[in-house]
Amino acid sequence: MITITFLGHSSFQMEVGGKHLIFDPFISPNEKAAAIDVDSLAADYILLSHGHQDHVADVERIGKRTQATLVANFEIASYYGGKGIENYHPLNHGGSKVFDFGRVKYVNAIHSSVLPDGTYGGNPGGFVIEHEKGAFYYAGDTALTYDMKLIAEEFTIDFALLPIGDNFTMGIDDALKAADFVGTDKIIAMHFDTFPYIEIDLEEAKRKAAAAKKELIVLEIGQSITL
């Protein structure tokens, strides 16, 4: 079983194989996540899908305190290595690495990527996490892409964390197709309602998911579930 805590926007803390993973930590600048104490979060690994500020804002704050291993593409991992993150592991698209909690594969995403100071952030990606009890997909920021079908050919995906906020990423309609492509009926929603550009009609999204016979899990910030 995996414990998943929503930290707001696209940020999650997960306990996988006894290790704490944090994905795309954008917490302290997010007014909606004001109740989250960034300095109390446990982290053994920090996984970054791309370099945009709304995905990396708290990397140094968490990474330097916890000595967590940063997992990202080559450009981002190297960038934070130069900023004093001592533990990092670079990946690139199609590559995978076995860590002590499971295997991480870095998969394609269609988006853009630049770090907050304008440094080139390489190409964006997502992660498939394969652990002893199953596998899940963290999409990062992405459009719908047929490459997602390759994930279903290699893995049995228990659930997928997918953006539904539209405008900069997939909206709910494409997210439902993405769930079909990767072979899961369980979606954890992310990247919606944080900013005016990505505010959506959440009830309509839930109705569309129900009509498509998908389980759309919408967590409150700070809420934890076990899957």
TrEMBL record:
SMART domains: Lactamase_B (SM00849). Keywords: Hydrolase. InterPro entries: Metallo-B-lactamas (IPR001279), RibonucZ/Hydroxyglut_hydro (IPR036866), UPF0173 (IPR022877), UPF0173_UPF0282_UlaG_hydrolase (IPR050114). It comes from the Bacteria. Residues 8-191 form the Metallo-beta-lactamase domain. Gene3D superfamilies: Ribonuclease Z/Hydroxyacylglutathione hydrolase-like. GO terms for molecular function: hydrolase activity. Belongs to the UPF0173 family. NCBIfam families: PRK00685.1. This is UPF0173 metal-dependent hydrolase A3SI_18442. It comes from Nitritalea halalkaliphila LW7. The lineage of its organism: Bacteria, Pseudomonadati, Bacteroidota, Cytophagia, Cytophagales.
